[in-house]
């Protein structure tokens, strides 16, 4: 039996835009209808698109931009992770990014000279720091201008409008479109199509079903499903296996979970990494269950601080920080979800703070062994 090979990795990427978007035909038609009417001279309501991660929001808009043609409007797509202020957005739209230091009014005036009406798509709109100012300005820009501007805002957060001033809301003239999560059956169909485009070889339909089920548990996230499929296929190909199996999927899940932990640790300052390592090392033989830890499975802050002093100097060759800084680092780790701080009243009525890990200590220690060279 021939070995399975990946022959088209591009189709496994969440950024890949297929020739059709199954289960999103209705959403494509709704948005396209408003754009076509705007292209014909009618006014366009601003559109706010909600939905969980991986529900096809961005893909639908990019599909329309690629496959639908318009004569009298320009559709400009921006992601607010890159363009997160009014200044950056307007300078990009007017193609004046090199005009640093110019006032906002300059870019607004530049919009007058556009030959076509504009549809501005802002993906991950909740990342725009001054979203209220931007929407208020653009929603009123028709006054005294020769062009009209329509906006499509894409967001995961249903709280976006709660951030807006009442004056902005009253002038926004918006409609809302919600993208439902993909079902397990829909994800199975999508994954089956992608895997057949991606590989030369066989796959177990049970493996596809398991990926779909796992992604459904993650709010029907198609991006997660594709990431899991891609990683499982890489494992299968590396091992020269005959076909993709459920076992490959199970191991891919473990790898992806570790990748998330590794990415978060890598972004930490080194001082916080050392504290995290000392906690994981100290609790490695104690905490057995992430969700039902008892005091016997945890250590007090004073105990951990003593361990941290030894580990910082002997393992990392760095002088330990003060207890005050140590407690500050613990707060940072709690905010990131790596630990929980639990206050316990003793028999003598003293309040003692204990630390519990919020994730598997093995993944944390694995990061330091793999990337820092510390066992």
Q: Overview of this structure, please?
A:
The protein is α/β, with parallel strands linked by helices. It folds into 3 domains: 5-9 and 188-265, Helicase, Ruva Protein, domain 3, CATH 1.10.8.60; 25-178, P-loop containing nucleotide triphosphate hydrolases (Rossmann fold), CATH 3.40.50; 269-372, Orthogonal Bundle (Arc Repressor Mutant, subunit A), CATH 1.10.10. The chain is 47% helix and 15% strand. The chain is built from 14 helices and 12 strands. It has helices spanning 25-39, 57-67, 86-93, 104-111, 131-139, 166-172, 184-198, 205-217, 222-238, 246-266, 270-283, 301-314, 323-335, 361-372; strands at 5-6, 46-50, 73-79, 117-123, 149-155, 174-178, 199-200, 202-203, 243-244, 299-300, 339-345, 351-357. Strands 3-4-5-2-6 form a 5-stranded parallel beta sheet, covered by helices on one side. A 3-stranded antiparallel beta sheet has the order 10-12-11. Helix 1 (25-39) crosses helix 2, helix 7 (184-198) crosses helix 8 (205-217) and helix 11 (270-283) crosses helix 13. The protein starts with a strand and ends with a helix.
Q: What attributes does this structure have?
A:
375 residues, alpha/beta, Helicase, Ruva Protein, domain 3, Rossmann fold, Arc Repressor Mutant, subunit A, 3 domains, five-stranded parallel β-sheet, three-stranded antiparallel β-sheet, 12 strands
Structural category: alpha/beta
CATH superfamily of the largest domain: P-loop containing nucleotide triphosphate hydrolases
The strand count comes to 12
Q: Give the strand line-up of the largest sheet.
A: 3-4-5-2-6
CATH topology of the largest domain: Rossmann fold
Task: Describe the sheet with the most strands.
Answer: 5 strands, parallel
Let me know the average pLDDT: 90
SSE ordering: EHEHEHHEHEHEHEEHHEHHEHHEEH
- Name of the top-level CATH class of the largest domain: Alpha Beta
**CATH-level-2 architecture of the largest domain:** 3-Layer(aba) Sandwich
Q: Tally the structural domains.
A: 3
Q: Termini, distance in Å?
A: 41 Å
* C-alpha geometry: globular
Q: Which residues sit in consecutive blocks of at least 5 with pLDDT less than 50?
A: none
Helix % is 40-55%
Number of helical stretches of at least 4 residues? 14
């Amino acid at each position: 039996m021939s070995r399975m090979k990946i022959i088209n990795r591009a189709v496994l990427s969440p950024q890949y835009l297929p020739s059709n978007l199954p289960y999103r035909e209705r959403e494509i038609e709704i948005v396209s209808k408003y754009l076509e009417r705007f292209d014909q001279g009618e006014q366009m309501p601003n559109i706010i698109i909600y939905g969980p991660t991986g529900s096809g929001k961005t893909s639908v808009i990019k599909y329309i931009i690629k496959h639908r043609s318009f004569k009298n409007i320009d559709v400009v797509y921006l992601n607010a992770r890159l363009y997160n202020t009014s200044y950056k957005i307007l300078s990009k739209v007017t193609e004046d990014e090199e005009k640093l230091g110019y006032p906002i009014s300059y870019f607004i005036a530049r919009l007058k000279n556009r030959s076509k009406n504009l549809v501005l798509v802002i993906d991950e709109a909740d990342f725009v720091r001054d979203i209220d100012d931007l929407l208020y300005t653009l929603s009123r820009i028709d006054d005294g201008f020769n062009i009209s501007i329509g906006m499509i805002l894409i967001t995961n957060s249903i709280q976006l409008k709660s951030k807006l001033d009442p004056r902005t809301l009253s002038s926004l003239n918006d409609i809302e479109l919600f993208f439902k999560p993909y079902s397990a059956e829909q994800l199975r169909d999508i994954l089956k199509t992608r895997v057949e485009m991606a590989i030369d070889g066989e796959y177990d339909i049970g493996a596809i079903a398991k990926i779909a089920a796992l992604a459904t548990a993650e709010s029907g996230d198609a991006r997660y499903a594709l990431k899991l499929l891609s990683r499982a296929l890489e494992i299968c190909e590396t091992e020269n296996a005959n076909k993709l199996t459920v076992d490959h999927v199970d191991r891919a899940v473990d790898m992806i979970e570790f990748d998330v932990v590794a990415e978060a640790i890598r972004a930490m300052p080194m001082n916080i990494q050392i504290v995290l390592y000392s906690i994981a090392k100290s609790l490695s033989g104690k905490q057995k269950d992430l969700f039902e830890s008892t005091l016997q499975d945890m250590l007090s802050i004073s105990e951990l601080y003593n361990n941290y002093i030894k580990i910082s100097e002997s393992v990392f060759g760095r002088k330990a920080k003060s207890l005050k800084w140590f407690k500050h680092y613990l707060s940072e780790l709690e905010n990131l979800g790596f630990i929980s701080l639990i206050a316990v009243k003793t028999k003598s009525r003293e309040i003692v703070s204990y630390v519990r890990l919020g994730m598997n200590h093995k993944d944390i220690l694995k990061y330091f062994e793999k990337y820092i060279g510390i066992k």
